[in-house]
Specification:
The chain has 236 residues and is of the alpha/beta class. It has helices at 3-12, 27-38, 52-62, 78-87, 103-112, 124-135, 143-156, 165-168, 174-184, 189-196, 200-214, 219-228, and strands at 18-23, 43-49, 66-69, 93-98, 116-119, 140-141. The chain has two domains: 18-151, Rossmann fold (3-Layer(aba) Sandwich); 174-229, Orthogonal Bundle (Arc Repressor Mutant, subunit A). 35% of the residues are buried.
């Protein structure tokens, strides 16, 4: 079967691969990432960028589903490139993959519009999973980083809303409330599925409905909302 035949067969089966753009100033690292991702089912590396300006240009020309972006890049850093991509309104999402895991870097990345933040020591399988989550509209933050941020977030947020939590969540079904509580605690779809003994596909559907009904953009906003309303507290 030729490459064209395989592409046609995949299209006929509705199996469109997740298209990925790599943005890192280290050629060897990009090569390693390309090898790791190209070996994963359903992923296709469509381009590489060695600096932030090139990353923005390729994102506009290639329209990948996900840009895997380092923070430290020449000409335009990863945060600036992320802001440029998200502000352009392109159907392109950014997953930060970097050696920097300080709270300041993470918060700046989220503020710039990144949908995920992972460290470069993440296992390949977890990176592949994160890319799929981000491509599907979700958000991913390394668990250890998220745990730190939740504590910090609780310290700086205003006092919880005086409106009863039950009233705030009245728009949700009982199952959607359960899912929201798990999301608010930073649990992944897989963890929620195990806890509720349902499929990950079902969890993903509930998460989408929950975010839409509450007017939230992503899982990070859901965590903030949970703290603001007093639904969860540090150490909960």
């Amino acid at each position: 079967m030729t490459a064209r035949d395989r592409t046609a067969a995949g299209a006929a089966a509705g199996a469109r691969p997740v298209r990925v753009l790599l943005a890192d100033d280290q050629p060897m690292l990009r090569s390693g990432l390309r090898m790791a991702l190209s070996g994963a089912d359903g992923l296709s590396v469509v381009g590489e960028a060695g600096d932030g300006v090139e990353a923005v240009d390729l994102a506009r020309r290639l329209l990948p589903d996900v840009v895997v972006m380092d923070v430290r890049l020449p000409r335009l850093d990863g945060l600036g490139a992320t802001r440029a991509i998200t502000a352009s309104g392109l159907p392109v999402r950014v997953l930060i993959l970097t050696a920097f895991d300080t709270d300041e870097h993470v918060l700046a990345a989220v503020g710039a519009g990144a949908a995920g933040y992972l460290c470069k020591d993440v296992p390949p399988a977890e990176l592949v999973s994160a890319i799929r989550v981000v491509a599907g509209g979700g958000s991913v933050v390394a668990p250890l980083i998220l745990a730190r941020l939740l504590v910090r977030l609780a310290e700086v947020l205003p006092a919880p809303s005086t409106e009863p939590v039950a009233a705030v969540l009245d728009v949700l079904t009982e199952r959607e409330r359960e899912v929201f509580l798990h999301v608010a605690k930073g649990h992944s779809n897989a963890e929620i599925a195990r806890a509720l003994t349902v499929s990950e596909t079902t969890v993903k559907t509930h998460v989408g409905h929950m975010l839409t009904k509450l007017g939230l953009r992503d899982r990070v906003q859901a965590v903030v909302f949970a703290y603001e309303t007093g639904l969860i507290h540090p150490g909960a």
